[in-house]
Specification:
By secondary structure, this protein is an alpha+beta fold. Helix content is 34%, strand content 25%. This is YXWGXW repeat-containing protein.
Amino acid sequence: MRRLMLIGLGLATLFSASVSLTGCVVVAPRPHYAARVWVPGYWAPGSVWVSGHWRG
């Protein structure tokens, strides 16, 4: 039972970590700056990896 609980806890940790690393993160706008959005890395056409970057 203990081993099953540890495996479940490990899977839950891995799942939550992977979910937290996906998607867009919107940053609250600063007083005189436009809002910026984090764009995660992706594969572009032609098998080119585009790393994550801030788009504002």
